[in-house]
Amino acid sequence: MNGIPIVFYDRVFSGLYTHSLEEAIELSGTFGERARCAYLHYAGYESIVENNIEIFRNLSYDCSGRILRTPKEIAAFPKKFVRGLTIYLKDAENKNVCRDIVKRFPYAMCRFILRSHSVDEAWIHFACSLRNLKHIVITKKLEDDSLRLLKKLVDCGNLLELQTCKDACEGEQFEDLVIVNDDDGPWESDVVRTILKFWTKNSAKLRGKNLFVRGKCKEGVKQLEEFVIHRKLFLTFPTLAGMPGVSYVIRRLSVLGIQWALKRCSKEECDSIQKYYRHHHIRFWNPSCVYKCEQEKEREDHRLYISFELSELTQEIGNKCERIANHTGPDHPGLMRDTRRFHVLFA
């Protein structure tokens, strides 16, 4: 591979996560050398924009964590190594400032953090024009007009991931949907249940998509448990559908029910998931095994694959790197109720 043009390596490494680069630097020859160069120099740029002014900026190395803060240092840094761009918007009406920042870093994937209840149409048009738009985070519940505008951004097909508060969830067209609940109060949303019900009738639209729920997600876990127990019960005993009291029974099945409804995936199944759905980029500090929930008997293309982070009480002491969930993880689905992060892959 030593005769391959340098641009090939740049293209390959630009799509790799840091942990993958860390593994690639152990290789010999030009591939290993270019991987080490990328690993040591890749960086991310952060900016805060308010009232049409960039009020804060810094550039940090992915590997060492070193931070550049002065305009002179940032301007001198090679732009091809800036692969992540995060802009915090206190009012999403600053398209001109955002455009200038994006132009400065043409190789970076863009991430916008929206810290307001509204967005304007001009900013949405700007976001739709970005080919390197990866991630939008909504930290406030959006007004109805802004939600309708956001749908235009969803429909344009450029957005890969949406992270939102639990009450502002919209759109099934993403590769990844991240729901975060850091509120101190009770979870009053049925967003997880709604997404799962949508999948039952629209599995093709969600195939290959990921749902992540983070933070205080016990109620989200409860909605997931009720759904998979419900599916398993009615697939096993179809005559129960519509019978009075069944919903109450499902809620009472609790831990025993989830152990019955979810089955650990085999090594072959986990390898297949890795191959067809790029499951390797989803990592946990202390992962469970991968579970499967079938929608229809004998239909491998109608399944949910579920994994989660084991709680701090069950974490392995001394584990310092994130790992992929696979067939070797602990098989205790009842522990999901204590998690602060779970993942659902729609297959």
Kindly report the oligomeric state of this protein.
single chain
Number of helices: 12
Helix content: 25-40%
- The helix/strand series, from N terminus to C terminus, equals HHHEEEHEHEHEHEEHHEHHEHEEEEE
Q: How many β strands by DSSP?
A: 15
Mass-distribution shape: globular
Major sheet: size, sense and barrel closure? Answer: 13 strands, mixed
Alpha-beta content class: alpha/beta
**How far from one another are the termini?**
35 Å
Cα-based radius of gyration, to the nearest Å: 22 Å
Which strand-content bin applies to the residues? 15-25%
Contiguous low-pLDDT stretches (5 residues minimum) are none
**Mean of all residue-level pLDDT scores:** 81
Widest sheet: strand ordering: 3-2-1-4-5-6-7-8-9-15-13-12-10
Organism: Steinernema glaseri
Protein name: F-box domain-containing protein
Explain what this protein looks like in three dimensions.
By secondary structure, the protein is an alpha/beta fold. It has a domain of 41 residues. It contains twelve helices and 15 strands. The strands form two sheets. Strands 3-2-1-4-5-6-7-8-9-15-13-12-10 form a 13-stranded mixed β-sheet. It has a two-stranded antiparallel sheet with strand order 11-14. The radius of gyration is 22 Å and the shape is globular. The two termini are 35 Å apart. This is F-box domain-containing protein.
